[in-house]
Amino acid sequence: MTLKCKIVVSDFHIGGGPILEDGSVNYLEDFFYDDPFVEFLEYYCQGIYEKADVELICNGDFFNHLHLFPDEVDPDILTEKVCVQRTQWIIKGHPKVFEALRQFAKTQGHHIIFILGNHDCGLLWPGVQKVLMDYLGEGTRIHLEPLIFDGVYVEHGNNYFADSLFNPRRYFLTKNLPEPIINLPWGCFVVINYSSKVRRRKPYFSKVYPMRHYIRWALIHETLFAIKSLIGIAVYFIKLRFFRSPTRRSSFFTTLNILKEISIDQNLDIVAKRILLIHQNISLVIFGHTHTFRYKQVMPGKRYINTGLWNEKLNLDPQELGKSTRFTYAYVAYDDYHRPQGFLKEWKGTHKVTRDLPLY
Ligand SMILES: [Mn+2]
């Protein structure tokens, strides 16, 4: 019998590359782990996996379609042309990653699926899907809905949070616009127009978890910056909510839900549990999005995995205090009765004498 497995990763937020054309540092890049990921892909094409049936599932936010370079004009207007261009820049900015993905897809029995997240919403455009399929081969699939197979449920997870929820009945806006654009949720505007600006001065800003601890920390240690930033985000929120624009849609309920969620630690444990309880035939739920890996036995034979993220993290939670980068992923194996078993794994790679660290 052929060995069969699925490997699930998420939240790489691959950008346009770490260095800009003029030689300066691209402070909007989050992905510095091209080499370990290339090794990871090679590992699953060699040895026992060479002739195996291996599916790589990139479960959302694999690409960063929201904002690649500091000098982009109107970065929040995501037309098809803009997203195609950004996808090409991402491929150009990380040539080793995309060459390795191409080799992976070319290996017999190996396939790649991209599932939609909120940072890679450019995947909604047929033009972007075509760029990826042209590059990686016809066998590559792009999936805009939760992916369900053999009792496994895989979804990015953004749709359970009001700030990053897309409207599936209205992915695009067209009214009073020269060409259609993606109907972005509030959180995407914040990433593009607010976080990007703060990151210029505080490169660690988007890496700190959990946010509520950071707000307290910043109020004590960076008081003026914290107060200015909090006022800034409040003003931006009001502007988005009360000033109409053909490029945005929002509702009063969304605003209320976002305000309700602000103080809550983002967590998908309850959602996963609900799916496992309601659906008798689902035995494994895999999410990403929250950037915190999880591996939980919800009940005998039923598990929840969150694949975490492959970016640097600055944790202020006393249980995991400090800077860390962990290459976590889900591995779905099949037993003799073709029943899937989910495991959370960490890619350690081969031993290296040296390693390049992110440049700021
Ligand atoms: Mn996400």
Write a structural description.
This protein has 360 residues and is of the alpha/beta class. It has helices at 34-43, 80-93, 95-106, 126-136, 186-201, 211-221, 223-242, 252-262, 269-278, and strands at residues 4-9, 53-59, 110-115, 141-143, 147-149, 152-154, 172-173, 181-182, 208-209, 284-287, 294-299, 302-306, 313-315, 322-324, 328-334, 340-346. The chain has a domain at 4-165 and 269-346: 4-Layer Sandwich (Purple Acid Phosphatase, chain A, domain 2), CATH 3.60.21.10. Helices cover 32% and strands 19% of the residues. A hairpin with a 2-residue loop joins β5 (147-149) and β6 (152-154). The protein is globular, with a radius of gyration of 20 Å. The chain binds manganese (II) ion. Manganese (II) ion binds at residues 60-61, 117-119, 156, 158, 289.
CATH fold-type name of the domain at 4-165 and 269-346: Purple Acid Phosphatase, chain A, domain 2
Bound molecules: manganese (II) ion
How many DSSP helices?
9
Cα gyration radius (Å): 20 Å
**CATH homologous superfamily descriptor of the domain at 4-165 and 269-346:** Metallo-dependent phosphatases
Distance between the termini: 49 Å
CATH class of the domain at 4-165 and 269-346: Alpha Beta
Sheet with most strands: strand arrangement? 4-3-2-1-15-16
| Helix and strand element order | EHEHHEHEEEEEHEHHHHEEEEEEE
- The average pLDDT value, as a whole number, equals 92
User: Biggest sheet: strands, sense, closure?
Assistant: 6 strands, mixed
Q: What share of residues is helical?
A: 25-40%
Instruction: Report the β-strand fraction as a percent range.
Output: 15-25%
CATH architecture group name of the domain at 4-165 and 269-346: 4-Layer Sandwich
* Protein structure class: alpha/beta
Total number of strands: 16
Outline the low-pLDDT stretches. none
Query: Shape, please?
Result: globular
